[in-house]
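Record type: ASSEMBLY
Status: queued
Input:
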Amino acid sequence: MKDDKGLLIVLSGPAGVGKGTVCNALRNEDTDIEYSVSATTRQPRAGETHGINYFFKTKQEFEEMIENNKLLEWAKYVDNYYGTPLDYVEETIDKGKDIILEIEVQGAKKVKERYPDGVFIFLMPPSLAELRNRIVGRGTENEDLINKRMNVAREEIDMMESYDYVVENDEVEKAVERIKSIVTAEHCKKDRLIEKYKQLVEVE
Amino acid sequence: MKDDKGLLIVLSGPAGVGKGTVCNALRNEDTDIEYSVSATTRQPRAGETHGINYFFKTKQEFEEMIENNKLLEWAKYVDNYYGTPLDYVEETIDKGKDIILEIEVQGAKKVKERYPDGVFIFLMPPSLAELRNRIVGRGTENEDLINKRMNVAREEIDMMESYDYVVENDEVEKAVERIKSIVTAEHCKKDRLIEKYKQLVEVE
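Status: finished
Output:
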């Protein structure tokens, strides 16, 4: 059985880890998950549709959204604003549907502050998988390269701290299966279900 | 990636909920999960094999296991002992393999005391699913029957409290899929993975 509210699922990870690829692959699967549409002030490119690729906004509209606390998170890159409209996310989860946000680490941090009940998934970069293999393995690399990798790994591990799950992106299909399993498992969590049952029993 | 230790998965729920059926169906699937074999002092029945269906023990052997704290839980029914040998469970998870225990609610409680890190799954009885349907639905039943069901539901909700997950057994195949998803998700939990990464980074 499903609990009444949908889940806010946040998929993040370091730049280049393949968030977009995994998210698109998930989108092509037959799931009930909705996808958050970002708002932006940049011009639509050929083939992009308002409400599907982005919500296209004027600078003034976007700044009003910021002002009125209507964005779950936002950032400015190269004179253009990008952000996650709160209304769409809330309407979706209120309807009992799950919604996924594919987002940079900094944005995910802001979402976590605003919405700590979300399911935060960290897509694990190959550097960490390599770290494991290298430790298990041979140790034929020079010290500089090892140190460099260890520093990157340390930063990535620090990022990981505030997430609920870590999904290795070894193969896109496997990563997608893991994310789907996490969503299923989250719907089975006792803490999400028991309050509802208690209410049903109390109500009588 | 998998963490080093396997998971102890405990599948329980009220009598008659279908624990055995679900566990057997899971066993027929192609998973890496091992199954705990109980010890008992009762006589083997035709077709039962030592080490597969049960570990068959004498009364004295069993009482020595109790004495030496070698059982994760045990109970006595009609002059025979039944219990879960600790060694087999620990050897399995130490090898990095998951192991599932299908067990009565009282036994699950004891396992929880001894092994709080286990993954505790409560198989939801139809009475609770019915409760939901009835609330949503029509209300054509008499008050006595409703009260009786509400009392059963209250007891079941109380049992549920100490579990991590609640899996509805609406269809065996669906219940099996949910359990498999829970196992996959548990292996992706940040808390299970991050310590290992931290150690790898510190070790250097």
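Annotation: The interface with chain A takes residues 1, 121-122, 124, 128-129, 131-132, 135, 146, 150, 153-154, 157, 160-161, 163-168, 170, 177-178, 180-182, 184-186, 188-190, 193-194, 197-198, 200-201, 203-204 of chain B (CB under 8 Å).
Annotation: Residues 1-33+98-204 of chain B form a domain with the Rossmann fold fold (CATH 3.40.50.300).
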